[in-house]
Backbone:
């Protein structure tokens, strides 16, 4: 009999059927562990089943009735309003199922998200695999809400995912993510979406002790409210690159919003943090970064960033002077003190298209020449300490009631095309091509969330002799930098120019069409300004920060 090969399409279909043979469990026991063999399926039993540590034939008929399908457990639905921990739950590891991503979620029948209450215990849920997802849950109590890493089960291409999860009542940290010294090249990949933290000592605690491993965290739409520390990162990594990126996220009312600590000066792993779109407010420090021998990268774009009003409080601070940094900020509003210290191996200090208010901007650097361009300083003195060793040029900035002190001969400062309004110069400062008037404008787009049929207001506050048009397009989470030093937060391939040319203080009202398919869409409104009175000191066009809005 001749050998016959199955058609490729049939083979693919059969393979798909095999992969689809997974089970779904409904947890109906309000006690975390319950009793094996009783009438209810507990969360502990579901986790052990997912881990291949418990098998169907060990369950009672009533417990088996809560499981549909066959094969590995792919989903555990919490079918009771609250599960109370009796003791620590078994860590989620799902070791033997490389193709199954384990989901834990509230059952669709529940009116409100299910609560997992770990009050009095060290940790509520422990995840030791990147094949796990939490969705639509409230994690309550415990010293730590969720403790996650991939130390027991890592699979390329997978990630720990938290979506629509709320943390409350923890006494140490809501979410703790760790790189515990993984093998070379192994990551701890994490995705956070619509995760909320309220009234905690630390909302997100990141611990990177990797050895040529890395953390790869991407977060969107986080709300961190009234937590003493919003995001804390402790980095002792040797080698490798770790990333933590936060998009469209807010940290409100923190004592210290973002804290990075590198206690081992020899730590040479690169630590990369990026913030795009959001509000970060703190009563002490907004972004406070201690560096090391390894490069510490702090990118911050399109933020409202506010620190406390005390003399030692900061909206942004990088330190010590002996550490290596890459600091890039643009399209921000920064309220409070800014101090940037960096050593000679620091790659970049860029602050562009940003408005600074109510503080002092101090820059002490011995590396590549900083680039300050198109910034407005209002009641923010610019101070170059005597220890600074790199001369640089400030380009086309506006200083209003903001004295400029160049206290270093080796780090002499040159102004090129800047406006000085009640802003005296002292020390090693050269003033070239002084601008006779102001030209940098600002805009406001409100509300950030708008319902169908409701208005969005695009407001401008421009200097005399400046006109603007508005561009509208799909919003982009990660700004395009194809035309340095401009950054585009809207899709240039799918945008339109709104009718009208606007000057001085003007507002455009857009009414969102009452079209259901627009729900969830996100747009960015971008003003483009041009000089209208032949001002030679004004760039041919500028892009003041615009605004993003989402249709709900």
Residues:
């Amino acid at each position: 009999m001749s050998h016959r090969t199955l058609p490729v399409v049939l083979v693919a279909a059969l393979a798909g059927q095999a992969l689809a043979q997974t089970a779904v469990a409904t947890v109906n026991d309000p006690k975390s562990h319950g009793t094996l063999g009783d009438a209810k399926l507990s969360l502990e039993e579901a986790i052990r089943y997912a881990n291949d540590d418990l098998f169907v034939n060990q369950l009672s008929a009533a417990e088996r009735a809560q499981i549909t399908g066959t094969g590995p457990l792919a989903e555990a639905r919490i079918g009771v309003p609250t599960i109370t921990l009796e003791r620590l739950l078994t860590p989620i590891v799902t070791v033997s199922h490389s193709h199954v991503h384990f989901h834990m979620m509230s059952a669709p029948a529940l009116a409100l998200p299910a609560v997992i209450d770990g009050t009095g215990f060290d940790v509520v849920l422990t995840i030791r695999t990147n094949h796990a997802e939490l969705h639509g849950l409230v994690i309550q109590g415990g010293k730590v809400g969720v403790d996650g890493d991939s130390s027991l089960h890592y699979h390329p291409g997978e990630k720990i995912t938290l979506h629509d999860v709320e943390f409350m009542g923890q006494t140490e940290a809501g979410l703790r993510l760790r790189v515990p010294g993984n093998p070379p090249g192994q990551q701890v990949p994490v995705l956070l979406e619509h995760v909320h933290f309220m009234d905690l000592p630390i909302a997100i605690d990141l611990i990177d002790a990797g050895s040529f491993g890395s953390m790869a965290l991407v977060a969107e739409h986080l709300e961190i409210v009234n937590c003493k520390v919003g995001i804390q990162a402790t980095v002792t990594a040797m080698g490798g690159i770790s990333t933590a990126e936060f998009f469209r996220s807010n940290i409100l009312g923190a004592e210290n919003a973002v804290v990075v600590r590198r206690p081992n000066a020899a730590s040479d792993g690169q630590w990369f943090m990026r913030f795009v779109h959001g509000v970060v407010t703190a009563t002490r420090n907004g972004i406070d970064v201690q560096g090391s021998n390894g490069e510490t990268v702090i990118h911050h774009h399109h933020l409202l960033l506010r620190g406390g009003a005390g003399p030692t409080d900061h909206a942004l601070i990088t330190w010590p002077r002996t550490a290596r940094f890459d600091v890039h900020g643009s399209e921000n509003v920064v309220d409070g003190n800014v101090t940037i210290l960096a050593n000679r191996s620091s790659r970049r200090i860029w602050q562009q298209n940003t408005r600074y208010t109510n503080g002092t901007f101090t820059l002490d650097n011995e590396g590549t020449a900083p680039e300050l361009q198109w910034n407005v300083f209002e009641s923010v003195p610019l101070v170059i300490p005597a220890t600074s060793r790199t001369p640089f040029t400030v380009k086309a900035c506006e200083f209003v009631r903001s004295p400029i002190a160049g206290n270093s001969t080796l780090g002499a400062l040159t102004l090129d095309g800047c406006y000085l309004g009640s802003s005296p110069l002292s020390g090693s400062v050269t003033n070239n091509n002084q601008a006779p008037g102001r030209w940098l404008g600002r805009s406001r787009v409100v509300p950030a969330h708008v319902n169908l049929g409701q208005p969005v207001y695009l407001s401008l506050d421009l200097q005399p002799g400046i006109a603007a048009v508005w561009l509208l397009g799909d919003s982009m989470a990660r700004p395009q930098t194809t035309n340095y030093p401009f950054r585009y937060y809207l899709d240039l391939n799918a945008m339109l120019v709104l009718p009208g040319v606007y000057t001085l203080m003007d507002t455009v009202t857009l009414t969102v069409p009452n079209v259901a398919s627009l729900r969830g869409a996100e747009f960015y409104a971008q003003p483009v300004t041009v000089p209208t009175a032949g001002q030679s000191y004004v760039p041919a066009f500028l892009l003041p920060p615009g605004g993003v809005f989402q249709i709900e």
